[in-house]
Description:
Oligomer: single chain
Shape: globular
Number of helices: 14
Number of domains: 2
Radius of gyration: 26 Å
Order of helices and strands: HHEHEHEHHHEEHEHEHEHEEHHEH
Strand order of the largest sheet: 2-1-3-10-4-11
Structural class: alpha/beta
Helix content: 40-55%
Distance between the termini: 88 Å
CATH superfamily of the largest domain: Bordetella uptake gene, domain 1
CATH architecture of the largest domain: 3-Layer(aba) Sandwich
CATH topology of the largest domain: D-Maltodextrin-Binding Protein, domain 2
Amino acid sequence: MNPxxxxxxxxxxxRRLLALAGAGLAAAALLMPxxxxxEAWPAKPVKVIxxxxxxxxxxxxxxxxxxPLSEALGQPVVIENRGGANGNIGGEAVARSAPDxxxxxxxxxxMVSVNPHLYQKMxxxxxxxxxxxxxxxxxxxxxxxxxxxxxxxxxxxxAYLKARPGKLSYGSPGVGSSPxxxxxxxxxxxxxxxxxxxxxxxxxxxxxxxxxxxxxxxxPGIALxxxxxxxxxxxxxxxxxxxxxxxxxxxxxxxxFKGFDxxxxxxxxxxxxxxxxxxxxxxxxxxxxxxMPAVQERIAQxxxxxxxxxxxxxxxxxxxxxxxxxxxxxxxxxxxx
Length: 337
């Protein structure tokens, strides 16, 4: 018998252990680049594409959050406006971007909850090609009218509209925007008819209302300073609860239009495939920004409410809105193409 044989018997177990250790090291090596990139992110400026023109709620929220977010990340946060097609142009630009955390989207919730109902064909699927990062704010809508119109409350305004079918007009930031859908909800519940005038953004619609070119508007918050200055008259809030800025102004639900809710949640999205650690870091930092008293105060001045939360909660809200808005889009046969 070979005397060395007993000593060699443990070799097979050692080989197995070495093989297992090698496999573990290989797996760790595969994970290291992703972990390292997540730790290194961001190593350059982060671009936020706003899919609506300057001056609207999405633009103002992006710029409000962008500055303190830049300080938290240690890199510039660059805001770029790409409006058009009810947000689809900017949404597609982000959906087609590299999923590395350096290109984000600031959009109304309508990108996911409304546009798929409006367009028979879209060049991208917002529910699959974009992932939620963080909600920013719940944006309320306010029924405001020209101050020279006789009605002083919702009931008088409804009667005024009914007596003048098709003679009054209302504006919106575009077909399928929350102000447009609010107008359609209102016409549906009141049995009235007014002409819808879509604009390329909220700011141009507001300017024409101030100039007397249109008669009323469901405002997403940018007209509030003009209401306070007496240049416009607010009749109601198109949300489930009253605004703390105008505690004496009733909701449309309180005025008799039960269940009226045209609120939407604005927030940040990223291209699908963006590393989860990057999304988690962005979500945490954006939530910290939204907890700042100065940011909350500014969002309140815009007529909204800060809406910190998880990406999952943001997505669930969008899906619930999809059901609600999809119903009015189908009922009113609204199409964008």
